[in-house]
C-alpha cells in the first residue's frame, strides 16, 4: 500500500512539472532570447546548411528562462525571405526556471533561386516564437548575407580562434562543391584527354592521362592569373571558378586550376585530390593499383608565366614531367612544416558536399 502511494505521488509530481497549474500566468514568463547568425552563406555549398550532420546552421537561438515560472510549449520557426519556406525548429514542452535551450535553423533553400545570386546579397531572416498563453507570436528580424555562387570563404572561424594552418582553411571541404566531373563541358574535355587510355585500372595510363591533362590545357591556351583581395568578405575569401569557367575563359588562379584538374581526372575515373598549402593549391592524383600519388604544378600550364617568374627553376619547355618534380618538392616542404591539407573529393561527396549545379 505504501509503495502504491509512493508511486502515485511520483506520478503526480511528474504531472505537475510538465503541466501548468491553475495559477499559471504567462505574464510572469521572463525569457532571454538571443539569436546568432552566420555572417556569410557560401551558396556553392548551400545544401550543407540544411544538413544537421555538418553543423553549418544559418542561425542559432539561445533561449533562457530568467523568470520564476516554467515556460510551456515553446516553439520557434525561421524564414529566409524569398529563398525558403518557414523552417520549424524544435518544440519544447517545458523550459524550467534557470534552464537554457539551444535551437538551430537548418533551412532547405531553393536551389534555382540560389543559383541566380552572383554577388553578395543581404537576406532577411525572420525568427518567430511563441509559448502557451501568448496571443501573438514574437517576431525578430536578422540579416544574413548570401555570397555569389563563385564566392568562397576559407574559414568561418573568428580571427581570435584561428591558431593553426587548418583553422585558416576551416571550410576546406566546401571546395569539393566546385569540383564538377559530371558537368557537360568538363566531361567532354576530359574524354578528349583520356581517349584511348584505361584510366580505371592501369597505372601507366592514369599517369599518362595526368600528363596529357597538363599538355591539353596548355594547348587550349589556359593562362594563370592571380586573384585580387576579395572586396566582399576580406582577405580570407576568394572568387572561385567552376571547371567549365576555367575551360571557357582559358584563365584561372592556382585554386581554379587545381579544381579543374581534379574534375577532369575524376570525370574519367581517376582518384584525385586538391592539396592546400600556404598561399597555393596543387592537384594530386592516386594510381589505382600501386596507390602512389603524383602532384603537378598546374600554374605552369602557363609557360610564359613559368619561364618569366622562375627562369632558374624550369627549362625553356617547362614540361609536364618537370612540373611533377617541382610539385613534389612543394608538397614535401609543406608536409614537413605541418601546413598541408589534402582534400579528398570522393570522401566529401559521400558526406553530402556535392556540386549544387
Condensed summary:
With 357 residues, this protein is α+β, with helices and mostly antiparallel strands.
Q: Under CATH, the topology of the largest domain is which?
A: C8orf32 fold
CATH uppermost class of the largest domain = Alpha Beta
Strand order of the largest sheet: 2-8-7-4-5
The number of distinct helices, counting runs of at least 4 residues, comes to 10
Total domain units = 2
Shape: elongated
CATH architecture annotation of the largest domain: Roll
Low-confidence stretches: 1-18
Rg of Cα set: 27 Å
Task: Say how many strands there are.
Answer: 16
Q: Indicate the mean pLDDT.
A: 90
The main β sheet shows up as: 5 strands, mixed
Share of helical residues: 25-40%
SSE order, one letter for each helix or strand: HEEEEEEHEEEHHHEEHEHEEEHHEH
Task: Report the β-strand fraction as a percent range.
Answer: 15-25%
Distance between the termini: 69 Å
**Which structural class is indicated by helix and strand composition?**
alpha+beta
Please characterize this protein's 3D structure.
It is a single chain. This protein is α+β, with helices and mostly antiparallel strands. It folds into 2 domains: 26-149, Immunoglobulins (Immunoglobulin-like, Sandwich); 163-350, C8orf32 fold. Helix content is 29%, strand content 25%. It has helices spanning 2-18, 111-115, 165-168, 184-194, 203-219, 243-249, 254-267, 303-309, 320-336, 345-350, and strands at 31-37, 40-41, 59-65, 71-80, 87-95, 100-105, 121-130, 138-146, 151-153, 223-224, 237-239, 251-252, 272-277, 280-286, 293-295, 341-343. The strands form 5 sheets. It has a 5-stranded mixed sheet with strand order 2-8-7-4-5, with no helix packed on it. Strands 15-14-13-16 form a 4-stranded antiparallel sheet. Helix 4 (184-194) crosses helix 7 (254-267). The longest helix is centred in the N-terminal third of the chain and has 17 residues, at 2-18. The termini are far apart.
Amino acid at each position: 500500500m505504501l509503495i502504491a502511494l509512493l508511486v502515485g505521488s511520483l506520478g503526480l509530481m511528474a504531472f505537475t512539472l510538465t503541466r501548468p497549474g491553475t495559477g499559471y500566468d504567462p505574464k510572469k514568463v521572463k525569457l532571454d532570447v538571443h539569436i546568432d547568425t552566420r555572417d556569410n552563406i557560401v551558396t556553392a555549398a548551400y545544401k550543407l546548411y540544411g544538413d544537421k550532420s555538418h553543423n553549418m546552421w544559418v542561425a542559432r537561438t539561445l533561449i533562457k528562462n530568467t523568470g520564476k515560472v516554467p515556460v510551456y510549449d515553446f516553439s520557434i520557426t525561421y524564414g529566409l525571405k524569398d529563398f525558403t519556406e518557414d523552417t520549424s525548429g524544435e518544440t519544447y514542452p517545458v523550459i524550467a526556471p534557470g534552464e537554457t535551450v539551444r535551437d538551430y535553423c537548418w533551412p532547405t533553400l531553393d536551389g534555382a533561386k540560389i543559383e541566380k545570386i552572383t554577388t553578395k546579397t543581404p537576406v532577411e531572416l525572420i525568427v518567430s516564437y511563441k509559448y502557451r498563453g501568448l496571443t501573438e507570436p514574437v517576431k525578430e528580424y536578422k540579416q544574413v548575407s548570401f555570397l555569389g555562387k563563385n564566392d568562397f570563404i576559407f574559414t568561418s572561424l573568428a580571427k581570435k580562434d584561428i591558431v593553426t594552418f587548418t583553422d585558416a582553411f576551416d571550410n576546406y571541404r566546401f571546395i569539393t562543391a566546385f569540383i564538377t566531373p559530371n558537368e557537360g563541358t568538363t566531361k567532354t574535355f576530359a574524354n578528349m584527354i583520356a581517349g584511348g587510355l584505361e584510366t580505371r585500372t592501369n597505372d601507366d595510363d592514369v599517369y599518362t592521362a595526368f600528363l596529357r591533362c597538363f599538355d591539353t590545357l596548355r594547348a587550349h591556351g589556359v593562362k594563370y592569373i592571380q586573384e585580387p583581395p576579395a572586396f566582399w568578405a576580406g582577405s580570407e575569401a576568394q572568387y572561385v571558378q567552376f571547371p567549365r569557367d576555367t575551360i571557357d575563359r582559358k584563365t584561372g588562379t592556382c585554386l581554379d586550376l587545381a579544381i579543374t584538374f581534379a574534375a577532369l581526372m575524376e570525370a574519367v575515373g581517376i582518384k584525385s585530390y586538391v592539396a592546400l598549402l600556404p598561399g597555393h593549391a596543387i592537384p594530386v592524383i592516386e594510381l589505382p593499383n600501386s596507390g602512389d600519388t603524383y602532384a603537378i604544378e598546374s600554374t605552369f600550364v602557363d609557360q610564359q608565366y613559368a619561364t618569366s617568374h622562375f627562369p632558374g627553376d624550369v627549362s625553356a619547355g617547362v614540361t609536364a614531367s618537370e612540373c611533377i618534380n617541382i610539385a613534389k618538392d612543394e608538397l614535401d616542404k609543406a608536409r614537413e612544416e605541418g601546413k598541408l591539407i589534402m582534400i579528398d573529393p570522393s570522401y566529401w561527396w559521400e558526406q553530402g558536399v556535392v556540386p549544387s549545379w
